[in-house]
Amino acid sequence: MSNASYPITEETIGQVTHFENAPQWIYEVDNPYLHGVYAPTVDEMAVDELEVTGELPEGIYGAYYRNGPNTIHKPTGLHHPFDGDGMVHAVYFQDGKASYRNSYIHTAGYLLEKEEGRAMWPGVMGTFDFSLPEFPIKDTCNTDVTWYAGKLMPTWYHAGRPHKMDPLSLENLGEYSLPGRTRTNMSAHNHVDWNTGEMLFMDYGDEAPFMTYGVANADGTLRSEVPIELPGPRRPHDLGFTTNYTILHDLPLFHDANLLRRHGKMVLDFHRDIPARFGIIPRYGDSADIRWFECEPCFVLHISNSWEEGDWIVMDGCRSANPLRQPEGGGELAHMLVYMRNETNNYRWRFNLKTGEVREGDIDDLNTEFNKSNQMFHGVKTQYAYHQHIPLLHENGHTLRFNGLVKYNNETGQYDKWDYGDGVFGSEAAFAPVKGATRDSDEDDGYVITMVTDSNTWKSEALVFDARDITLGPIARVKLPQRVPAGFHATWARGEDLYT
Length: 500
Ligand SMILES: [Fe+2]
Description:
Elements (H helix, E strand, L loop, with lengths): L45 E2 L4 E3 L7 E8 L16 E9 L2 E8 L3 H9 L27 E5 L2 E5 L7 E3 L6 E4 L15 E2 L6 E6 L5 E7 L5 E8 L10 E2 L3 E6 L2 E3 L1 H7 L4 E3 L5 E7 L8 E5 L3 E11 L2 E9 L13 H7 L4 E8 L5 E5 L5 E5 L11 E6 L14 E6 L4 E6 L4 E2 L4 E4 L12 E9 L4 E8 L9 E4 L10 E5 H4 L2
């Protein structure tokens, strides 16, 4: 059975390969995001003392976590990558050795569908069914993952319910509800300030005030949460923060909530006549303290870092000037396919708190995203960001794939690049500061870690780069015990927090 007229061919995703550790129904579904490097891996395992090519320095001390979709049951309708059951893959580093563990995230949807043995919810492409228990579409918690207050916290793109996992065993500990908080949902891309241990987060939805912004204390309790009034329902994705301020996003890519209620379909529109707005609020500020800055219309997925420079707030991230391009084929999957074909570039915004002036512009034009920087320096000035290079359509970029690691110097716009190799695709990287690093250390004193899968052999590895010079290639390759499909976000937990 096919649910779309989109050909799964060597040109679009590579050879369709039959995997024993994938659910066999995928071969009945004509959707590129269920095949090749996206084919779900349903096995869960823990393996110690992984084989390493090269050498793991003692300075790599902590764990790399990556979240992503691993769909279990055959979808009832159209399948989008945000619909796949969330799974965390982890690689632990200590004493020059590495181990691997992976686990599904036990969301309400995962547990109920496991009991029933079938898919029970529609996915994000609808139709949203508001009569279903729990939620109108499946909340998979498959997008982001954060280490916060001693626990791992996976979250979902559509501001779903965050979950809690033991960071060492990956044991599921239920939904993550902050004591004192009345709301249950939280967006992906909450941020932990390693300098204070606090977590900054937001939630958004279709009911006024359409956004809330909160700060959680280092001990896992709520400090504050305030309503942020937006002109209507929005789909923001990330936030920026400095030592004293948080930067919230109100972007002109959104849907009509009345249409969603009436027809059960979320149709995103890019409103080219509406400016992008960034709201700067003191970290512990109240709703009235927010100050909005208007910028050129755009959509923004991910922020690399933000900081204060005198009266200025500087925010680096990847920006899309044209997030909804015209689909060219793909049948019912057309809009999803074109939306997932990320076209973005490295960009800098500057906001003057005294005069209200805005300055913005490209840092570079390379097609990159899934940008990360050294979390030790989040909130204060940084130079470097580590992006994934994304092939454009004419470069065989029919689907979202990462074929190289890019280290940017955002001061100069210069970059170094490491190509993963023909048919080898990576994951979002995480920056691992060298063991014992502080803010007095060099910003790039540490390692950049990613997971890759080679579609020539279907073997997966964790690659470890010396962050000072990624052009040397990986200093260590850690062989993973199973194929790891492409996914979304990754994070690093420091051994100092994890093992002591
Ligand atoms: Fe994201």
